[in-house]
TrEMBL record:
Domain PurM-like N-terminal: 62-170
Pathway: Purine metabolism; IMP biosynthesis via de novo pathway; 5-amino-1-(5-phospho-D-ribosyl)imidazole from N(2)-formyl-N(1)-(5-phospho-D-ribosyl)glycinamide: step 2/2
The protein, known as: Phosphoribosylformylglycinamidine cyclo-ligase
Residue ranges occupied by any PurM-like C-terminal domain in the UniProt entry: 183-347
Gene name per UniProt: purM
NCBIfam families linked: purM
Amino acid sequence: MSQATSATGGASYAAAGVDIEAGDRAVELMKEWVKKTQRPEVLGGLGGFAGLFDASALKRYERPLLASATDGVGTKVDIARRMGVYDTIGHDLVAMVMDDIVVCGAEPLFMTDYICVGKVHPERVAGIVKGIAEGCVLAGCALVGGETAEHPGLLGPDDFDVAGAGTGVVEADRLLGADRIRTGDVVVAMASSGLHSNGYSLVRHVLFDRAGMELDQRVEELGRTLGEELLEPTKIYSLDCLALTRTTDVHAFSHITGGGLAANLARVIPDHLHATVDRSTWAPGAIFNLVGKAGQVERLELEKTLNMGVGMMAVVPADSVDVALATLADRGVESWVAGEITERGDHSTGAALTGDYAS
């Protein structure tokens, strides 16, 4: 009997391309990784219709504000698919969600994921979830559940996409943002681990379509293959940022994602103030220079698409700078003073880059 028909010869879910048994196998394989993310507030395990989180843990807050965010990994998943490496993009997913949440000073609590595939390959799905679970551990949050959806006919057998949503909490009087920023504050930059998870449509077009490069091609200036560089996981800053909230009077954070450094920093600058970031305080990594040269991409185009070596920024009072830098150094985060906050002039915008990058 063909697998395309049931015992009676009628149509079946399997005939339509959905393999329930493969999905069940994937769930079994991912359980051990999900378990590693558990916090004491999490109730139950995988298999329920909803993830449960004990909200009584929030009673210690006087006025708890819940922060939520959702995001994906974008076209970076195409690199993972082509390389057959699936346990790194989960880190990217957690970073994109939880580093948005921590920007307001919120502690990440829990996350859910959504994995959409053309065909369920249990080991592949489990590998993706492994990466998400590892990312949740790095962010200090629990992975309380998710969904794996099989979409045959819509996606090819090897195609997939990932997305996630997360929740955090912050005390109302500890909420960070533009209203805390003052003239004379200092902008502290935190180094990125590479491209992170933004701008891959440009990167893929430049490096593959225009420059004709291959993923397995070793690039001397990168010190590894192109594929290894492009799959470098996004750095997760959540716990590093929370450490700053405990040791300094940090006023705001800015997660440098799509839109680039200036545009994202401007999102947390009040209307009457201006942030100036000095390019000469750091040198972007080799991958940024490679993309720029290979595609003859103008600097401003690069800067509004890629993070240029900065993944997160903190705005702190001038008298907190030394403590902030020491806190981040103790946590293994490369950081430096990159700019300052001034009164906004008649022709200035929320944030701008000045000078030339260090060589």
